[in-house]
Amino acid sequence: MKTFGKKSMTSVLKTILSIALVLELVAILAHVGNIYYHCLPLKDSMQETMLFMYISIILFLIIAFFVTLQLRKLLDRFNKETFFEPVNVRRIQNISVLLFLYVIISYLLTIIGSVAVSKQDIPNKLLNAFVILTKGLDIKTLFLAAVIYIISHVFKKGCELQDQTNLTI
Amino acid sequence: MAIIINLDVMLAKRKMRLNELSEKVGITLSNLSILKQGKAKAIKLSTLDLICQALNCQPGDILEYRDSVYP
Predict the structure, then answer these.
(1) Distance between CA atoms of A11 and A17, rounded to whole angstroms?
(2) Which of A36, A53, A150, A156 is most buried, judging by how many CB atoms fall within 10 Å of its CB?
(3) How far apart are CA A134 and CA A110, in angstroms?
(4) Cβ proximity of A159 and A83 under 8 Å
């Protein structure tokens, strides 16, 4: 299987990402609907916890949506065999920043959630769901974001070299 | 950069047009235009060789160093 061009690995990945984009959008809308249907108007502490959970999920989905969008655009450029361009560097940097943002938001939600949950009497099932949703400081993603940031700088160097090559007659 | 490309001067001296040179040396017009405008970052010795051959001149006739020119 080819890596770039038509019917290549990149184009398959691009299609998968397009489907993921649509699914993420649907999921965001579904969770907004869930908030209206299950949580509003707020009556008890369980609804408050559920609202908090839905908002957390929506935040994560929004970040995932933008990461997928950037990745799709990046793969689109790669598919056309244009690699070392400033726009690609910017996209890779955006992905790294979004992942950092995900880690920070996830960590903040854990702290806020833990404090809120400790004060309320909520069912164990919901508590478990909350623990799964917010995993504390996500070291793996943090590491990935740092590596992607370094890769963006590698691409920046690549851009400089490409520029030099283009302007060598 | 303090290195000046005097390609246009040499072309005028030899009464040759840029596209004529392009055909002779086999370098695209756009690349020669980049060279003429001084936008090029580097020039290959093989390119210089071809241009000197086509214009019947020395590399010094095309390249010049001027101290007072800044980027």
Answers:
(1) 10
(2) A53
(3) 5
(4) no
* Four-point Cα dihedral A149, A151, A155, A160, nearest 10: 80
Give me the helices (H) in chain A, please.
9-34, 45-79, 86-119, 124-133, 139-166
CA A159 to chain centre: 26
Check if B40 contacts A (Cβ < 8 Å). Answer: yes
- Average pLDDT across chain A, whole number: 87
Does the beta carbon of A81 lie under 8 angstroms from any beta carbon of chain B?
A: no
Sketch out chain B's domains with CATH numbers. Answer: 3-65 (1.10.260.40)
Instruction: State if pTM tops 0.90.
Output: no
Tell whether B27 is within 8 A of chain A (Cβ).
Answer: yes
Could you say which DSSP state residue B63 is in? E
pLDDT tens, residue by residue, A113-132 = 777 666 666 666 666 666 66
Residues of B in contact with A168 (CB under 8 A): 40-44
- Cα separation, A145 vs B68, whole angstroms: 47
Q: Which stretches of A35-85 are DSSP H helices?
A: 45-79
> In angstroms, rounded to a whole number, what is the distance separating the alpha carbons of residues A142 and A96?
9
- Please state the ipTM of this predicted complex: 0.76
Provide the shortest C-alpha distance from residue B32 to chain A (in Å).
8
